[in-house]
Amino acid sequence: MKSRKTTDGYLVRCDIGEEVVSILTSFAAENKISAGTVIGIGALKDIVLGYFDMTKKEYLRKEFNGIYELLSLSGNFAKLNSEIMLHCHAVISDADYSVTGGHLFSGVIAITGEFYIRPADTEINRALDKFTGLNLIKL
Ligand code: ZN
Question: What letter does residue 138 receive in the DSSP assignment?
């Protein structure tokens, strides 16, 4: 991974073999970004996407093991129990240009990943919401 500071954030390039959710979370922790947003594009493999089933109050998970275009990753950083957490979603496409997407649990950079991280000027925390069973942003 390589990065460059910009006037309002960081440009981050992730390289082949790096797991994107963990490396972006580590980057945020190392740079003391406790809140902010991330957007990105690139190509991923070994992707695990999720769909939150409100009836079961749990994520259904599905693996995608080929190489996919990462058409769009968007997410946010916030603290959960003093640890920085990245919540992100991904839209991916295959060789037939079929598109799918979901909550991104993990994905490995297959070619490159180009991300822009913009820190927020405030701290954001998450806490367990009993109704959904999810750690929602506290406002
Ligand atoms: Zn999600």
Answer: P
Distance from the alpha carbon of residue 104 to the mean position of ligand 1, in angstroms: 7
Separation of CA 85 and ligand 1 centre (Å): 12
Q: What is the CA radius of gyration of the chain?
A: 15
**C-alpha of residue 25 to centroid of ligand 1, in Å:** 15
Cα(90) to ligand 1 centroid in Å equals 9
Q: What is the pTM of this model?
A: 0.95
Q: Which neighbouring-strand residues pair with 45?
A: 108
* Cα 30 to ligand 1 centroid, rounded to whole Å: 23
- Distance between CA atoms of 133 and 92, rounded to whole angstroms? 27
DSSP string, 77-138: EEEETTEEEEEEEEEEE-TT--EEEEEEEEEEEEEEEEEEEEE-SS--EEEEETTTTEEEEP
**43-89 pLDDT, tens per residue?**
999 999 999 999 999 999 999 999 999 999 999 999 999 999 999 99
